[in-house]
């Protein structure tokens, strides 16, 4: 049973002994009911978010999110061009951790609604590049995961082996992914600080004086680690119109050498979300999850059957210099699609013909559910809607949305 806002308000005063709560309201999240959340206003005028996990998996993820945010020292935050939530206090409620953090205003844009051209697309690229430019000591000093390129490749190979062992992986995908894993040129890259598969809807936007969207904050930090920068661009599979602009702006914004296979690995990471869902279903012994994963894999196999191999057409340094000329310094953009938070709820819509619109949901929204366009929520709810890429169900749904849109 969901905890009431009043119960959560009491947790705020427990976590922040000197604070008084003058008002509290339930806060819907894109978290599939995995958290009970509320937005509380304190007697000093501050607004804070209180979150309590509802199950063991959410408990683990919330603790990971807190560790990542604590790794963002004042010095690190000072060099970032965006804000991150600040952990203000914590306590325990019903044997579950309670985290109270600062509230960040802004609206969000789902990957499927990222328009081409300057604005949202280029802002996302620059923000992701800024995180990737952080020194890896930020992660290592915080005791967070760190992988080198060989380890990233080995993880992909292990996932493929586990998916093949289920006996349910279509041969076409096995061949396609095996060729990608075996292609040495695909795995020659420099690891960076990454967000572990961030999605555009984790970023917060506000319009400047010229009505141009500017990123002001980032909500999802739980995947903070050292790894493959391509994983944070896998969402481009669901934003084909903005893909070139994002990659061009990323190349211009990144202080590191151009990674010629970045876009190919990003696509591979997106496709492998299907394999993760299949492996999860088998590990959990869930026949329904396995059946769902098999259907998704078969649809993906059909959609990429005539697609070129993943390991080809690498970008050169000359390509990167050419990209600089394609990124304008400033331009007005159409913000008509950039209202507030978007939410996803109906997987079936993207297994058919992309017709119809999603119906309003009264439940707490799920983090970037992979199945549907998402619809605006009140701007005040934006900051608590944390995308959860560690959630296998969310990853599978996201993968479906990506590949049905680009098939």
Automatic annotation (TrEMBL):
Domain spans labelled Aminoglycoside phosphotransferase? 38-249
SUPFAM superfamilies assigned to the protein according to its UniProt record, in alphabetical order: Protein kinase-like (PK-like)
Disordered: annotated segments: 351-407
Q: Which Pfam families match?
A: APH (PF01636)
Which superkingdom, per the lineage?
Bacteria
InterPro entries reported for this sequence: Aminoglycoside_PTrfase (IPR002575), Kinase-like_dom_sf (IPR011009)
From the Swiss-Prot or TrEMBL record, give the protein name: Phosphotransferase
Source species of the chain: Candidatus Microbacterium phytovorans
